[in-house]
Amino acid sequence: VQVVESGGGVVQPGGSLRLSCAASGFSLDYWTIGWFRRVPGKEREAVSCDARNTYYADSVKGRFTSVRDNAKNTVYLEMTSLQPEDTGIYYCAADSLFACGSLQDEYDVWGQGTQVTVSS
Fold it and tell me: Which is it for strands 114-118 and 9-11: parallel, antiparallel or unpaired?
């Protein structure tokens, strides 16, 4: 049972990236998928939570979108209008409780992270 992130990279300010969170060993259909990031000098923070509804941190609202593809057992984080402050390691995590609101420690499965760097 695991999730694997991919799609990170280097992008200029104002650019876009799409991160993928691919699950194996279980079906994502009724699992909550959270995206988190650790930016330099800060604690890991929640970016989005995708369950029956989808919630976003204020800092990314309107710029980031979580999209599920149940046929591919994958969740994508589509990021637009990226800024240098979005630089960090992005993680996806899966929670068997199909509802947002869990603490980070309550998520069941974590990926290894993918680096996103926004720089000119």
Answer: parallel
Surface-to-core class of residue 40, CB atoms within 10 Å of its CB (0-12 exposed, 13-18 middle, 19+ buried): exposed
What is the DSSP code (8-state) at residue 91?
Answer: E
Dihedral of alpha carbons 93, 18, 23, 48, sign: positive
For 80-115, how does the pLDDT look when each residue is reduced to its tens digit (9 = 90+)? 999 999 999 999 999 998 889 888 888 999 999 999
CB 87 within 8 A of CB 39: yes
| Secondary structure (3-state) at 27 | coil
pLDDT given for residue 103 in this prediction: 86
